[in-house]
Specification:
497 residues; mainly beta; Neuraminidase; 2 domains; twelve-stranded antiparallel beta sheet; four-stranded antiparallel beta sheet; 2 helices; 34 strands
């Protein structure tokens, strides 16, 4: 059966227009021609544009702003048309230092580059930036290749957030200049708010106005986490502990968490140390999360409004995250969603028509796919998709909400549903294995009258553990197999009622 998403891609902008055989039958991939109709005075026909996408922002009904890692911002017009020859490219700004975020602010664009967040302004209205104004600075800038800066992203209160990567290697200096911190822009300065991040490359705000960030598995980070970004908390990476000695440090840790212990024990040792809202188990869901994009498209992108899409770098994919509040804190489940992209997925942005634009670049790293960069469009085809829409925690188990009514026989069959739980070790090692794995018993399965909700009674729930659900042979009443049969819930708190 055709998968209910149509994928249109602008992948290699130096080749002639052609149709490519997709990696999966539910993808329809098109490759655009070299932009011979560019309006940039600096661009010459045949040069092409290396679309190593660092930022995406929609700035008009059919105009997309694209920041690329070589230091430019391009306007792409006509990109919502299926006529790839009608696309026009205009260079808006150049000379930036690896911009890795883009945000419209009034008539200006804000972009975070290595050394600052910059306001790009077109004062004379000719379509090119003629004012590069420092919006905020104040973090350590060095030649360390891993010392990236991301943002800005606006939360529901209107604050602009920026996150700062840790440096990597012997020459990294993470004890100065707020490396590994997230902070807000105030009066032209970066004001640190929380720390313990490693590579916080994605920022996104939910419907309630709360802001989140993605981090990536690595030192001190055993698997990929999605965190609620807020002041006064520590996210676990100890490489930036030296910054607590700086005069502007906004808080101190009550205790340094012990190492080489299970994550729940480390969390209990330090009140400021917070768990992820969601873990994305290694390679089951992702290896290196990037952008966060809220689905808020009134059904134009399927039945998942209110949830986050999460870019995945190494696996060239997109995952999906459902969040709920339990005891005043966020937790939830993650699901695989789309894969088979041509390169590492780095930036996500919804268009006015509800389609999703996916910016890709694998510069300096490696990923699945056969390209080094690209810009892809994903459209929902309005065909029914049978998937686990939500996974909610209950005092005695979990509640699954499906997008379509489920076939009763398939869900109550022997072995149809299995569950286990596990945690990780908190250590300085690069990544970590699942530990303390325990198989859980599902003692009862009940299905709602409309067939869309399944309640599971589960014995042996454990707070601060990932609870992995595996399904076998589930199908809808129409006989459609379940799309992505496994789900992963981070149960930080067991609900009281």
């Amino acid at each position: 059966m055709m998968r209910p998403f149509l994928l249109l891609a602008i992948l290699n902008l130096t080749t002639a227009f052609s149709e490519e055989k997709p990696a999966y039958e539910y993808f329809d991939i098109l490759t655009a021609s070299s932009p011979s109709n560019s309006r940039s005075q600096d661009w010459k026909p045949g040069d092409g544009i290396t679309l190593e996408v660092g930022g995406l922002e929609w700035i008009g009904p059919d105009r997309l702003a694209v920041a690329i890692r070589k230091g430019e911002v391009w306007f792409v017009d006509g990109i919502l048309s299926d006529d790839r020859d009608g696309i026009e490219y205009q260079l808006f700004a150049s000379g930036l230092h690896e911009p890795l975020g883009l945000l419209k602010d009034g008539d200006d664009l804000l972009v975070t580059q290595r050394g600052e967040t910059t306001r790009l302004r077109d004062r004379d209205g000719d379509g090119a930036a003629d004012a590069f104004l420092t919006e905020a600075s104040g973090w350590n800038v060095s030649g360390n290749y891993h010392a990236y800066a991301y943002g800005p992203e606006r939360d529901g209160a209107g604050d602009l957030w920026v996150t700062l990567n840790l440096g990597m290697g012997k020459l990294a200096d993470n004890a100065t200049g707020w490396r590994g911190w997230g902070g807000v822009i105030e009066d032209g300065a970066f004001v640190p708010k929380s720390f313990g991040m490693r590579s916080p490359s994605g920022l996104g705000t939910n419907l309630a106005g709360d802001i989140f960030f993605s981090d990536q598995q690595g030192t001190w980070i055993p698997a990929t986490p999605i965190h609620h970004l807020r002041p006064g908390v520590f996210y676990g990476n100890q490489e930036s502990l030296g910054t607590l000695k700086l005069p502007g440090a906004p808080f101190q840790l009550t205790a340094i968490p012990p190492v080489n212990v299970p994550y729940p024990k480390a969390l209990a040792s330090c009140p400021e140390f917070v768990p992820p809202a969601v873990w994305l188990p290694y390679n089951k869901v992702g290896r290196s999360a990037t952008d966060l994009q809220l689905i808020d498209e009134d059904g134009a992108f399927g039945p998942f409004d209110g949830q986050f899409l999460v870019g995945e770098f190494t696996n060239a994919a997109i995952n999906r995250v459902f969040l709920e509040e339990v005891g005043g804190e966020y937790q939830g489940a993650c699901f695989p969603f789309l894969d088979g992209f041509a390169s590492a997925v780095f930036r996500l942005e919804f268009a006015p028509d509800g389609s999703l634009f996916v910016g890709m670049t694998n510069r300096g790293w490696s990923s699945l796919g056969n390209r080094s960069y690209g810009l892809t469009r994903v459209r929902y085809t309005d065909e029914p998709v049978f998937a686990i829409k939500e996974m909610r925690a209950r005092p005695d188990g979990f509640e699954l909400v499906f997008t379509e009514p489920i076939d009763l026989d398939s869900v109550v069959a022997d072995g149809a549903l299995e569950m286990s739980s596990y945690t990780y070790e908190y250590s300085s090692r690069y990544g970590g294995e699942e530990i303390q794995t325990k198989q859980l018993s599902i003692s009862d399965v009940s299905v709602s009258e409309d067939g869309r909700t399944v309640a599971l009674k589960v014995e042996g729930l454990r707070p601060l553990y990932v609870h992995e659900l595996r399904s076998n042979g589930l199908r809808s009443r129409d006989g459609v197999p379940l799309d992505h049969p496994n789900a992963y819930y981070t149960l930080n708190r067991i609900p009281e009622k």
